[in-house]
Amino acid sequence: MSEEIISPSELEEELRKCPEWEIKGSKIIRELEFEEFMDAIDFVNLIAEAAEDASHHPDIDIRYNKVKLALTTHEIGGVTEADLEMAIRIDNICDE
């Protein structure tokens, strides 16, 4: 897996596969809303398991029933292939 920052034009192209994600600075962001707080927590626990398995961890912000996920490769300061792969894993969890 490449540890290079994906160019802005390539990132826009790649995010067509993940339309729920948007580019914000050096990150990609997805926001979700759930019916209840515990639904949000259950979702975050699933994301945490996937992140541990992939050894790539999103920034997670929980506000009652809202969850905001941000992906970036902190070591190099931008979005890499690892972030896109994690976004796809997260989208798959959302689809379950």
Automatic annotation (TrEMBL):
The keyword Lyase is assigned to this record: yes
Catalytic reaction equation(s): (4aS,6R)-4a-hydroxy-L-erythro-5,6,7,8-tetrahydrobiopterin = (6R)-L-erythro-6,7-dihydrobiopterin + H2O
CDD domains: PCD_DCoH (cd00488)
Enzyme class: lyase
Source organism superkingdom: Bacteria
InterPro entries, per database record: PCD_sf, Pterin_deHydtase
GO molecular function: 4-alpha-hydroxytetrahydrobiopterin dehydratase activity
Family matches, as Pfam families: Pterin_4a
UniProt KW keywords: Lyase
One GO BP: tetrahydrobiopterin biosynthetic process
EC number: 4.2.1.96
Family in the record: Belongs to the pterin-4-alpha-carbinolamine dehydratase family.
Classification via PANTHER family: PTERIN-4-ALPHA-CARBINOLAMINE DEHYDRATASE
Annotated HAMAP family: Pterin_4_alpha (MF_00434)
NCBIfam families hit by this protein: PRK00823.1-2
Protein name per UniProt: Putative pterin-4-alpha-carbinolamine dehydratase
Species whose genome carries this gene: Rubritalea squalenifaciens DSM 18772
